[in-house]
Amino acid sequence: MPILIPSSLIIIIAITFYLSNKRSKRIFNEALNEYRSNFIFTSDDVLPYPPSNTSPALVSYLYDKNNIDLSIVPSTLMYLANKGFYKLDSTLSNGNELVTVKFKRIKDSSKCEYSHLKVLMDWFKTYEDNKNEFSFDSIKIKVDESKNIAKNFYNSYWDFINEIRLNGKLHNYYIIIKNKEVLSNDAYNEYLQWCAYKKYLLSLIDNKDTNNIKESIIYASALGISNYDLEMDLTDSKENYSYDNNFNNTFYSYYITNAFLFNEIHNIADNNHNSNSNFNNGLDFSNNSFNDFSSGGGFSGGGGGDSGAF
């Protein structure tokens, strides 16, 4: 026979829980405000340049470490190209439409400042031809044709994401206040600067202005701007659109092409992973802390949750 709990007792328990939770939030907010009050934060509402030269992967970790977007992969590759690790080339159709973007590696991954950049370069090195070149088009074909290659792609993606999180932890962006993880004052100030830079980037997109889009677009996905929001019909812009004489337009087109292609490749690899019940058999994640990081964890960090807003 089921035990009946009086409705009055349920109400008392609910009220007690509510008051306790409200008190905990008040104590946390008081402690957080006291900590924040000892720091002078940026007053910039819009910032027309990147606050730092760090990789978009680490910016993504700072901005919202639990929601690192797929596009951080092509973003970081374009960041490396901008740093001189890759040379970009393209194949155009007769109508001057972008067909293929090629990455030619001209620096070794050992020159990378952070280990997550090395992991990324070593991952895509496996797809290079004898000229040290790869394209997302060729990778898509390989992943689509081979479940083994799709499996390796899937695992390499998570190796990269986990390495971002490991590098991010070394930066000590987060501290604990009243048992909650929040951004430190220095990190929160940098977060505010990136938010101000995001406003500038959004204004470029709204105005279809590609004059300064090169660096901006590298950080778009790290700041929560989707590829669909980035799409612009440049034929309607104020500039004369030409692949030959407008580097910013070309760089923008390279990024957009690769971002959507990578999403397709990841979906193929992910579908192959989920459709094969034996996919993970024999895989060893002991070296990359997959079990600790792949689900995103239970943090409240990044730009959302209890990141430290007043």
UniProtKB/TrEMBL annotation:
| Pfam families, per database record | DUF2207_C
InterPro entries, per database record: YciQ-like_C (IPR048389)
Q: Please indicate which superkingdom the organism of origin belongs to.
A: Bacteria
Domain (Predicted membrane protein YciQ-like C-terminal) ranges: 50-173
Q: What is this protein called?
A: Predicted membrane protein YciQ-like C-terminal domain-containing protein
Q: Which organism is it from?
A: Clostridium sartagoforme AAU1
Highest classification ranks of the organism: Bacteria, Bacillati, Bacillota, Clostridia, Eubacteriales
